[in-house]
Amino acid sequence: MAQKVKKKRKPIKVFDIVSFCILTLLMLIVLIPFYLTIIQSFMTQQEYIMNSNTFWPTKPTLGNYRDIFVGSTMVRSFGNSVFYTVFGVIFSMFITTTLAYGLAKKGYPGRSFFQNLAIFTMYFGGGLIPFFLLVKQLGIINTRWAIILPSAFSVFNMIILRNFFEQLPPDLEEAATLDGAGPLRVFWTIDLPLVKPALATLVLFYAVGRWNEWFYASLFLGNAKLWPMQLELRQILWSSSEIVGNIPPEAGRPSFSEGLKAAAVMVTMLPIMLVYPFLQRYFVKGVMIGAIKS
Question: Rounded to two decimals, what is the model's pTM?
Answer without folding.
Answer: 0.79
